[in-house]
Amino acid sequence: MHKTAFFQACAAGRKCRQHVQSAATVAKGAHLNWDYPHAHTLPVMPEAGDIDGLQHTNNAVYVRWCEHIAWHHSATLGLDLEDYRRLDRAMAIRRGEYDYLLPTRAGEALTLATWLCASDGRSSMERRFQLIRDSDGATVVRARWNLVCIELSSGRARRLPPEFLAVYEPAIVAARQSAQD
């Protein structure tokens, strides 16, 4: 999806200020084994241009998809890029970890999920991701971001503003099973 179209879609979803499941979760969630409850999901499918010289989806594509769903989730909860700019605050990735468990190929139907899993209530949060292959329910990627709140104008770490706490804290979920570290 083109970035402008994506941010317009996020803005359209901005009115929804509750933790909601996407249509994909409602339709597919019963048979997918998510690591956490209340998955925010998006369907994804590798295209020919996503395939690398090893004939599987390039790892950078998964990173891009994680960014995409993170913005989608944030906008669905009620904070989008416009809000970040207005508040002069953002959640920036301090550390990203990706576990590539199985390869995927062009045309495979996949479902990507994300959750907010932790917050210190001051300046940092944790976001997790899980990518499942629809055909067999296998987890192909797990990822984790450690996020820190920054002031956009200076790039310096800052406290989470009340608007972030009000939107993000209620969306934090606990693991269904032992942590996938």
TrEMBL record:
Pfam families: 4HBT_2 (PF13279). Keywords: Hydrolase. This is Thioesterase. One of its GO terms (molecular function) is fatty acyl-CoA hydrolase activity. It comes from Janthinobacterium svalbardensis. It comes from the Bacteria. Transmembrane segments: none annotated.
